[in-house]
Amino acid sequence: MSPIGRFAARGAIATIAAISLLSACSGSSAPTTSDQATASTTTQGTTSSAPAEPSRSDTLTVVTHDSFALSDEAKAKFETDTGLKVTYVAPGDAGSMANQLVLTKDSPLGDVVFGIDNTFASRVAGAGVLDPYAAAPLPTLANDLSADDGHLLTPIDYGDVCVNADKGWYAAKNLPIPTSLDDLAGAAYKDQLAVENPASSSPGLAFLAATVGAKGEDGYLDYWGKLTDNGVKIAKGWTEAYTGDFSGSSGKGPRPLVVSYATSPAFEVDKGATESRTVALLDTCFRQVEYAGVLKGSQNVWGAKKFIDFMLSKEVQAEIPEQMYMYPVDASVTLPADWVKFAPLSPKPIAVDAATIGAQRESWIKDWTARVLG
Amino acid sequence: MTRAAGLGVRGLTVRFGDTVAVDAVDLDLAPGEILALLGASGSGKSSLLRGIAGLEPLAAGSVTWAGEEVRGIPVHERGFGVMFQDGQLFPHRDVGGNVAYGVHRLPRADRDRRVRELLDLVGLAGYEKRAITSLSGGQAQRVALARSLAPHPRLLLLDEPLSALDRALREHLVGVLRSTLKATETTAIYVTHDQDEAFAVADRVAVLIDGRIARIGTPSDVWRSPASPAVATFLGYATLLTPDQARDLGWPLDRPLDGQVVAVGPDGLVPTGDARGVAVPVLEQIDRRGYVAIRVTLPHGAAAWLKAPGRIEEPTLRVTLDPAHCAVVATDA
Amino acid sequence: MTADLAPPLPATHRGRGRRGLPWVWRAGWTLAAALPLAFLAIFFAWPVAALVARGFGGETGATFGAVADVLGSARTWRILRTTLTLAVLGTAASVALGIPGAYLLYAVRFPGRSLARALVTVPFVLPTVVVGVAWVAVLGPSGPLAFLGWAESLPAIILALVFFNYAVVVRTVGGLWGRLDPRAVQAARTLGASPARAFRTVTLPAIMPAIASAAALVFLFCASAFGIIMVMGGVHYSTVETEIWYQTTQLLDLPAAAALSITQLVVVTLALLVTSWTSSRHERALRLRGDASGEHPWTWRRDGLATVVTAAVGLAVLALPMLTLVLRSLRNREGWTVEHYRALGTTVGRTLTVPVWVALRNSLVVAAEATLIALALGVLVSLVVSRRPRGAGARRSLRVLDALFMLPLGVSAVTVGFGFLITLNRPPLDLRQSMILIPIAQAIVALPLVVRAILPVLRAIDPRQREAAATLGAGTGRILRTVDGPFLLRGIGLAAGFAMATSLGEFGATSFLARPDRPTVPVVIFRLIGRPGEANFGAALAASVLLALLTALVMLLAERIRPAEASEL
């Protein structure tokens, strides 16, 4: 009996010691990592010194966020056309993904990224994570959506984050549906709005940016003070707000106003109805743009560029509305009939440039948290 | 008719599903009396005991103490103690803590005195602080006895308390048990499958067969007249003889056997040492302490053991029956 | 010493006895400890340490100042206080309510018990997002419990924590309770102890190790609860876990995250030390019945109170949200419908890349892999930790070993996930894009549960049984096989069930690792519920119900895997 136990224990002690050694090693592994990375970039430098012959391999790893979706047919076609084997990795939401790219810039997660939005664009572009790629310009680009002049990010799709209203609720209360940001702070609309926390939600951050854009960096906190006094409800994320709090959704929550997307009303149409139960307030919108880019240190720069071209191709652009609920940047693509009817884009979205958002995002959120959550 | 004092059991029945473990048992016990409940394994003796203690739900019947029904009274308020086969000492308490368990309401000084008193009584004075794990099997059972006696149970039920111990220790502890029970004037039911243990410890013995009491009485009464072949066999009467077979082996003619059988006890078959008796072939001889056990074949073909002072050289031996060590039993039919 | 006292062994045994433990076995035990430790080191300690080190060191040199800022801020302490309050209250409530449940579902026999046991486990694996929505529906303005006014309050979070952790207490404690020798309690009763006193003085000390073990698990789950706290508490309750998530994934403020991770590690380590101390105080060889004779049939008199408490918890805390879920999955705006279930065979419009049934297959494959890994490692860890060496130092290191494997439960999945990115990025461990990381990550989460399920059973083996086997000539291998083995098998059904269930419901780590084209069911549910429209919402609920049913089925099977109990006399 006892010898067994003793030896087991001795083994355990030895192994625990080994663990601490291991962790001690890892403590000093950071410089090693960058050394190796430097080494590999150097090697790559030599390989790519032959001009116009970017690195190439048989596989392509696409880094994206957890809302990414593309049909299997489209993927298969891309693989046949290019002879590449495509792997998607989706390490979390858009924010997680962007920050992981920055964290791993010495040893990139993949070859190409899709799904960096304009609230994270300047952070990723500024961190030196991307290599430039100038894709062939689209014949009919919907809007001027480019993020920078250095061609680091290629716009793929876009959409508007707007306050949505439950039409039935207002009809029943005999109250006009609010239209502007100021309306939302009005006494008639007390305890009706649900907003996502900008610290944890991308539409929440978009709406915060919209208020900054509309009220200015000096005025937005006062506006939020009014919203708070008017009983705004802060939810953790879009699901909690839209499904849990919003009366117009299938969750049948208590509040008739929620921050969501301009496209959301297209999904709240009863069978056979000619009108959506909800409507987006087009004067409250912030425009979100999603970009793709080539990751620096990619082992397959050629494939990465092909993938960006592929994302801009007609068939993918046509898939985007149904798969990812965003508008394609190619304005020549036919939109779903429901969208044309129920989900128009805002004619005048509130604009804030990506560089400002990138520089100010954290201080906005911090100040917002102090003001609204206390 | 319930006695005024002591335990009264009427029609006690314990069932496990469709199996009847205890079948309408009646039993009376006077205060201070020790009853041994003897039975083979599976005879229902433990179930009867647990039924009386309230540890097993009764299918039918009543249990009274001093004429009062105790069936509705929960186990811990009955004042019936149980000493378990393996002691069931609490490993997280020391010896003193175990003995004191049932008397925790006493003031500390009284409690300590009671613990000391009982440990003294079972011969383990000074063991209060010892850990349960440090005890030998015999010591553990003595602590268990002390523990079950500490709260002055009006009835103590002992469930094969010595069966896990070795024979010498068992014989010694039976004495300790009886003297302790008598010294504390404890009324007790002692369940065992060991006949010697039962006879040594009890004032009266009850033999349980198939859930019914087949025979009850003082040890000598029960031994002398087992009342049925089944009881006789269980008690250790090794051979049963029909009247004809008995007469062949020299059963006295002045003791008529009217359809009864003769149960031959361990000393019932004796070598005559002369020309009397019947010659039987010797099959096997084994030396025992002070005698030789000899196996023989009886005239009707059955084998039987008998005792002789020394080894037999001849292939046959003349034997006869000693009526003083045989019992006459009515057949079951 | 044992050898000196032992009777002379037959010649064939003597040689082995004198040599002591053969080197093979010595090496074997060391390996048994080393293998799981190496696994833990590579897939947990290293990534976490690397990320924390990056926070402290960073590329910009030492930033202890930033760490000090975090630790000095009032907000950090408020967050820590909230975390501890929620964890302590959640644990206390789960244990207090779970103990009657453990008794009723394991020590009492009644028809439908297996089903009840399986059903209480279902909440444990439901995705937090779905549970959040279900609870909001129950407690919200139009819900059946709206009158309590608990929406977004502390009681609501505690209720949800109990909802998730009830099964942990019931199963861990019940597993031991059902096999306690009932005669110990009977002995106490015949000595005049009331049922309450017998419980307090005999049963409670006997089940204390299991309670401590369950409490530690629940505490870790509560302290590291992420989704549920945010969903149930609105935005007013920030915990260390949610703060780490925010600082890491949204701000990439690694110094702050490192400081919080250290804080989390300290809290978790303290909790584990307390548990270890509690269980070692109560640890002893219990007299367990190999069969189920510790159980007794249901009677109103004896089991009434436990039944009422368990029924109340079962209905109000467990069944209500689950029923809400089921009912809602069967409704659309027009009325009753099965269309949401029909949609599971499709990609729900084009919201998903694969139909839900493919995700279900992915889930099952991953869960099977994770279960295998967790069982293999868990059995090794349990066997090593259940030894009883003589030396105090050796015993202490076994306790440390035991606690080490609990750590992953208390450390943020974000820290581990981000740690993976900067450690497992070079051959031969370039696993960042490998699908095997998913079952590995899930196995690490399930491992403590597996150990918790097996260890109490192994620890309860009377060491004399092993000695008895040894004196009968059994070598170490045969003792393991014949003494530990049968007990191990009994624990393994439960362990496999837990591991499988954990894996099926795991979302935190999986969401960092899952591939968009190979999603698991929780990932699919998360995606569906993250999109507007009734079709998506309904399909999310239907998929949740499917996941719940699958879990119930797995747990039912796990009960059956246990070897046939010896028939009762």
Give a summary of the structure in a few sentences.
The complex is a heterotrimer of chains A (374), B (333) and C (569). Chain A has 374 residues and is an alpha/beta fold.
General description of the model:
- The complex is a heterotrimer of chains A (374), B (333) and C (569).
- Chain A is of the alpha/beta class and 374 residues long.
- Chain A contains 13 helices and ten strands.
- The longest helix of chain A is centred in the middle third of the chain and has 28 residues, at 202-229.
- The termini of chain A are far apart.
- Chain B has 333 residues and is of the alpha+beta class.
- Chain B has two domains: 7-224, P-loop containing nucleotide triphosphate hydrolases (Rossmann fold); 236-330, no CATH class.
- A six-stranded mixed sheet of chain B has the order 6-7-8-3-9-10, with helices on both faces. Chain B has a five-stranded antiparallel sheet with strand order 13-17-14-15-16, with no helix packed on it. A four-stranded antiparallel sheet of chain B has the order 2-1-4-5, with helices on one face.
- The relative contact order of chain B is 0.12.
- With 569 residues, chain C is mainly alpha-helical.
- In chain C, the strands form two sheets. Chain C has a two-stranded parallel sheet.
- The longest helix of chain C is centred in the N-terminal third of the chain and has 34 residues, at 23-56.
- The two termini of chain C are 40 Å apart.
- Classes of the chains: A alpha/beta (374), B alpha+beta (333), C mainly alpha (569).
- Chains in contact: A-C, B-C.
- The interface between A and C is large, with 88 and 102 residues.
- Chain C: It is found in: Cell inner membrane; Cell membrane.
- Chain C: InterPro entries: MetI-like, MetI-like_sf.
- Chain C: Pfam families: BPD_transp_1 (PF00528).
